[in-house]
């Protein structure tokens, strides 16, 4: 097409028809401008398509990632609820001077102090999106806001976990002394095999007096 334009332009110049040449040249420029605009529109459409493709990829990945994180959270909540339930039972026993058998006490102590309390969600994709500026490809402003604040949510949880871990360590420190027996807890909760191997059980040392330990009660209730 541009070859035809050039030939027409040369013919108009050879005929000295300058006014027609000027009109024709303007028309040619207009066609070029229109062509550029069309090219830009197509490019923008392609970019828009690419952005939508990235968003679809991100949304699917985020859905999978947060679905797994949700399952982790539900499992952790169940574990923590069970730990809280048994810790509460210990507190009631101490308050009401309830006498418990060694097996029940060992189970309550083990469940209250031994299970994982940290939440470790899957964060690889959301971290990548934030670090690479991918948030601009997320069209939903509410979702962008949640993703932006996600790390702050986790930091808040970390602070709570650290506080709980400190209290738990204070409780566990009591069992590092000679006053109480971790072995008794392990033997009464069927954990002694994996932990202690096939060693001959020692005579059981009772942990019943922990129910009258004020330091243990204070740290348990904090």
Task: Write up this protein.
The chain is mainly alpha-helical. The protein has one domain (2-221). The chain is built from 8 helices and no strands. Helix 1 (2-14) packs antiparallel against helix 2 and helix 5 runs antiparallel to helix 8 (214-221). The longest helix has 79 residues, at 18-96. The chain is rod-shaped and about 100 Å long. Mean pLDDT is 80; it is low at 16-26.
What summary fits the major beta sheet?
Answer: none
The average pLDDT value, as a whole number, equals: 80
Alpha-beta content class: mainly alpha
Strand content: under 5%
What is the count of helical runs?
8
Please outline what is shown here.
The chain has 222 residues and is mainly alpha-helical. 75% of the residues lie in helices and 0% in strands. The longest helix is centred in the first third of the chain and has 79 residues.
Quickly list its features.
222 residues; mainly alpha; 8 helices; 75% helix; 0% strand; rod-shaped
SSE blueprint:
Layout: H1 2-14, H2 18-96, H3 102-113, H4 124-131, H5 141-174, H6 182-188, H7 192-196, H8 214-221
Helix pairs in contact: 1-2, 2-3, 2-4, 3-6, 5-8
């Amino acid at each position: 097409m541009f070859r035809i334009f050039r030939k027409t332009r040369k013919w108009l110049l050879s005929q000295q028809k300058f006014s027609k040449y000027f009109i024709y040249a303007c028309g040619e420029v207009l066609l070029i401008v229109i062509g550029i605009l069309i090219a830009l529109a197509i490019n923008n459409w392609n970019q828009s398509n690419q952005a939508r493709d990235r968003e679809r990829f991100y949304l699917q990945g985020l859905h999978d990632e947060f679905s797994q994180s949700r399952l982790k959270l539900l499992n952790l909540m169940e574990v923590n609820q069970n730990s809280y339930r048994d810790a509460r039972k210990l507190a009631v026993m101490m308050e009401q001077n309830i006498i418990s058998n060694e097996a029940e006490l060992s189970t309550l102590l083990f469940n209250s102090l031994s299970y994982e309390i940290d939440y470790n969600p899957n964060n690889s994709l959301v971290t990548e999106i934030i670090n690479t500026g991918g948030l601009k490809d997320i069209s939903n402003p509410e979702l962008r806001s949640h993703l932006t604040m996600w790390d702050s949510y986790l930091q808040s949880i970390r602070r709570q976990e650290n506080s709980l871990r400190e209290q738990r360590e204070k409780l566990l420190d009591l069992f590092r002394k000679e006053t109480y027996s971790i072995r008794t807890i392990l033997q009464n909760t069927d954990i002694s095999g994996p932990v202690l191997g096939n060693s001959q059980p020692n005579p059981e040392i009772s942990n019943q007096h922990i129910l009258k330990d004020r330091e243990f009660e204070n740290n348990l209730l904090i």
